[in-house]
Amino acid sequence: MAEHTSFDLAGHETFMHKEIHEQPAAVDRALRGRLDQRFATAHLGGVALSARDVLGIRRVKILGCGSAHYAGLLGAQLIESLSRIPADAEVASEFRFRNPVIDPHTLYVAVSQSGETYDTLAAVQEVTRKGGTVIGVVNTPGSSIARACGTGVHLHAGPEISVTSTKTFTVTAVVFALLALQLGRVRDLGPAEGHRLMDALAVLPGQIEQILASEDEAAAVGRRIADASSAFFVGRVGGYPIALEGAQKLKEVSYVHAEAYPGAELKHGPLALIDPAVPTIVVLPDDHLLDKNLASVSEIRARSGPVIAVTDADIDDAGFAAVLRVPHTEPELAPVLHSIPLQLVAYHAALALGRDIDKPRNLAKSVTVE
Description:
This protein is α/β, with parallel strands linked by helices. It folds into 2 domains: about 15-210, Rossmann fold (3-Layer(aba) Sandwich); about 215-355, Glucose-6-phosphate isomerase like protein, domain 1 (Rossmann fold). The chain contains 14 helices and 12 strands. It has helices spanning about 15-20, 25-30, 50-55, 65-85, 90-95, 120-130, 145-150, 165-185, 190-200, 205-210, 215-225, 240-255, 290-300, 335-355; strands at about 35, 40, 60-65, 85-90, 105-110, 135-140, 150-155, 230-235, 255-260, 280-285, 305-310, 320-325. The strands form 3 sheets. The protein has a 5-stranded parallel β-sheet with strand order 4-3-5-6-7, sandwiched between helices. It has a 5-stranded parallel β-sheet with strand order 9-8-10-11-12, with helices on both faces. Strands 1-2 form a two-stranded antiparallel sheet. The two termini are about 40 Å apart.
């Protein structure tokens, strides 16, 4: 898979569309040389942590803004699930203003596509000033955040020109899976589980290609969403960060209002807004929560809300306004695949509305001001 390093459209109408289609190659680069078959683990060369260091970590806190924060939410779930280290993600722009306690046994992870996000850089400076350990996850070596951290992981996503991040979000999620695997194999994760995840990671680029080959189905959903004044996105556990990211993509590139909720939160307020004019996109992974997710779908249908599913489960299409299917993978990695159709939905909604897709109004690629 060749890396596109030029800044031309390469036959695509927009950079966003080009970058969505570059994701198989970007994920392949992010994985290359980082899977260790002998020890069933991942090896991120920029993470200068010995086994003893890893065993001393009591908590992981991930700091980022916007899509980087949503990738961090997924990363925290992966790290906690695979390594059994308590982990959470916090919006970097709020972090330093609450005078946080910096724990020397906490590993802080700063996430930024550009490496120049001011709010995230300020959070890094707050951590390091108080003696904390912080690593960077960035797409730009030599950037301010990379230099401030001194150690970390290069995404290898390649240039991303469109303001709306697509391939950097996907690659960041994959890098967090690698970090979780690396930490987990030092802690409680056995070699069989390590190989299970490595095998699933290795085939991700091909699975993303399969999703992109079905773009017409996502395009039809995007055109339908373009006619709505508002949309809901719903997901549970790993599906919730993807719902947040899907809603973010839709509103920032198409200007259609969108909100995301955990599935169980619908009954705590948002159901009041469900009606036939408000479509809901539900992330439905084929996991132990499938029945609970389908129960949420029933609640929406009971109020005449149209439901669009993004799923790798074998579900009946009846009753859904549309079903966007993705290949089956291991549950930990399913969110990576579920995010791809939502990028295409947002893109085609914006295209139908005639938006300036690569340069959404009021937004900048690199937010370097407070």
